[in-house]
Amino acid sequence: MSNEDKDTVAENLVKSWVKILKEAGYSYDEMIIIFRTAKLKADCLIAKAQL
Question: What pTM value is reported for the model?
Answer without folding.
Answer: 0.71
